[in-house]
């Protein structure tokens, strides 16, 4: 009974203290796609990457009801770093869902006009507001409606002490007349967060925390493979220093049962817990000590094998540019692309489990092989059609011949003038297992073999290459079959001997493949990319940098008459593949085991 009463009281007092509007709630996940599209149309290529912001504690005045409920001091601020805008995962500040949705757009536009160097929170937000209204006049009505709605949700200055009332009136004036307030009066408490404005200090704190964490033993590069899936639930984090005072520690014994209390001890880590993620879900606040956790393993990057064991290089390396979207310019001769052929070969024969599928695709693709035949009784042609000539002479002698005679024949037929280059991702992630049957690389091997069987049956000219990378000075292009080579036992041995490589510098690989394809005399040139994830490498080739370079490489290919098409088994394809290749130039195969059977179909049309 006591527990039931406590639950009812908690629900009642929480509803009374919560000033949000759940009925008008808008979630970032529901509008992120439309928001990114609209922002790109308004601001061009320099669009901020929008990410969820963590909840943060503010030292603001609480009402008596909020004190009872333990609410009123936790808010989700809006702030930005260099290339990211952090906003709440859900917005229910205002009673109208349309206004809550408009807040997301306003934050993004305001962030694009925010001065790069913060000087004064109050002044900079007013300056950015004026710049936004000047740059986007059409947003003025929405801004006016948002301002009025935000003011109605703010505390009444008449109900506040004198110092806080003066502070609140200054904020209201700055909201209604941006640029009219140059200083914020001091007060005992901080003002209630202004939902129309951005906060700079969170970006600085996060950057400092990130820089500090890079020196800790447990730090990992963001581009490392096999990262655990991110938890969708966000936590508020505080960074504190570990206590270093020796002596007797006094505590209540019942506090031993509380996960949410941190006891500062002068050691880096307690015994390892197997259920760390479950414990983290139960915490209200995750407190991070400045002392690093004990290392559980050595941090090693992938080293290149010895020359005697590595693949055989076919050239000394080709220098190619790379697109730097931050500077909006190419880094000339930045990437060194090596062409290699596999040193270690596999079985020369087609695997037994592919024999039946190979017969099927050969039978289907033989129907696409051009059939040449004689067209007869033509008015123009390559040779004289003797049968038509005799018929014409007979008709003329009997006076039945009329008009120009059709007495020629021509040898013709439909010709598939197609050259295709398959570029397979051979990064370390392809060593991941798909269930208990095979790895991603096993599926790619089978796909390349069936693809070769299909295009050999259709008579099309094709080439097979793989790629991986280790920073910009070592991009590896593995030649499995060139355009001039026939599909034979040696090609099958190279495919069956494939092993996982390093990382995925996709832009350089696409540029090299485009060079090879653009030299071909065919009318149709298809670049078929097989991958299991996003572009990444050990250096800055991560996130937007890698995506922008890949997108630029795809554009360059199209300008040279090459049609890039991506086949992926990455289930978290999201928006990045349509953005990179176009909505009609990629294919997601949800079941990786279907890749060998479906890959040849990409060339049928």
Automatic annotation (TrEMBL):
Gene3D superfamilies: von Willebrand factor, type A domain. CDD domains: vWA_norD_type. Residues 207-241 are annotated as: Disordered. Coiled coil: none annotated. It comes from the Bacteria. Signal peptide: none annotated. Residues 419-603 form the VWFA domain. PANTHER family: NORD PROTEIN. This is VWA domain-containing protein. It comes from Thermohahella caldifontis.
């Amino acid at each position: 009974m006591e527990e039931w009463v406590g639950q009812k009281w908690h629900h009642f007092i929480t509803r009374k203290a919560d000033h949000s509007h759940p009925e008008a709630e808008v979630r970032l996940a529901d509008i992120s796609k439309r928001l990114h599209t609209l922002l790109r149309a308004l601001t061009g290529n320099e669009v901020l990457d929008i990410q969820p912001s963590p909840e943060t504690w503010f030292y603001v005045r609480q009402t008596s009801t909020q004190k009872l409920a333990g609410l009123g001091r936790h808010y989700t601020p809006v702030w930005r770093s260099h290339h990211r805008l952090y906003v709440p995962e859900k917005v229910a500040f205002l009673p109208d869902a349309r206004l809550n949705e408009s807040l997301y757009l306003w934050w993004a536009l305001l962030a694009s006009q925010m001065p790069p160097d913060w000087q004064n929170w109050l002044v900079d937000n007013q300056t950015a507001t004026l710049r936004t209204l000047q740059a986007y006049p059409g947003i003025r009505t929405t801004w006016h409606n948002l301002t009025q709605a935000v003011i109605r949700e703010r505390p009444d200055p008449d109900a506040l002490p004198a110092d806080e009332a003066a502070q609140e009136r200054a904020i209201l004036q700055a909201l209604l007349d941006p640029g009219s307030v140059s200083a914020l009066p001091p007060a005992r408490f901080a003002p209630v967060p202004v939902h129309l404005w951005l906060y700079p200090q969170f970006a600085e704190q996060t950057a400092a925390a990130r820089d500090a964490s890079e020196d800790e033993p447990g730090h990992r590069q963001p581009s490392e493979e096999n990262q655990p899936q991110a938890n969708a639930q966000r936590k508020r984090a505080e960074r504190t220093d570990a206590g270093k005072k020796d002596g007797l520690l006094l505590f209540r014994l019942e506090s031993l049962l509380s996960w949410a209390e941190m006891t500062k001890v002068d050691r880096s880590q307690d015994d390892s817990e197997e259920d760390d993620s479950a414990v983290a879900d139960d915490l209200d606040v995750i407190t991070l000590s400045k002392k690093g956790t004990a290392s559980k393993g050595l941090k090693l990057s992938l080293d290149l094998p010895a020359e005697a064991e590595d693949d055989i290089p076919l050239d000394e390396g080709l220098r190619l540019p790379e697109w730097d979207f931050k500077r909006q310019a190419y880094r000339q001769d930045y990437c060194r692309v090596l062409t290699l052929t596999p040193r270690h070969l596999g079985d020369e024969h087609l695997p037994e489990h592919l024999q039946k599928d190979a017969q099927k695709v050969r039978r289907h693709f033989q129907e696409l092989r051009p059939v040449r035949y004689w067209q007869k009784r033509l008015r123009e042609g390559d040779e004289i059609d003797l049968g038509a000539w005799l018929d014409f002479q007979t008709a003329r002698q009997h006076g039945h011949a009329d008009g120009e005679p059709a007495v020629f024949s021509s040898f013709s037929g439909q010709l598939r003038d197609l050259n295709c280059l398959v570029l397979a991702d051979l990064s370390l992630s392809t060593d991941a297992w798909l269930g208990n049957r095979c790895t991603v690389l096993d599926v790619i091997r089978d796909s390349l073999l069936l693809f070769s069987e299909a295009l050999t049956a259709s008579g099309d000219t094709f080439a097979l290459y793989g790629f991986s990378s280790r920073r910009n000075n070592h991009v590896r292009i593995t030649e499995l079959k060139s355009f001039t080579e026939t599909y034979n036992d040696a090609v099958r041995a190279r495919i069956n001997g494939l092993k996982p490589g390093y990382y995925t510098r996709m832009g350089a690989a696409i540029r090299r493949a485009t060079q090879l394809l653009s030299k071909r005399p065919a009318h149709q040139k298809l670049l078929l990319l097989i991958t299991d994830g996003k572009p990444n490498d050990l250096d800055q080739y991560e996130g937007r940098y890698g995506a922008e370079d890949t997108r630029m490489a795809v554009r360059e290919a199209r300008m040279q008459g090459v049609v890039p098409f991506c086949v992926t088994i990455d289930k978290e394809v999201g928006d990045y593949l349509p953005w990179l290749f176009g909505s009609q130039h990629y294919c997601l195969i949800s079941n990786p085991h279907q890749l060998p059977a479906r890959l040849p179909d990409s060339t049928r049309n």
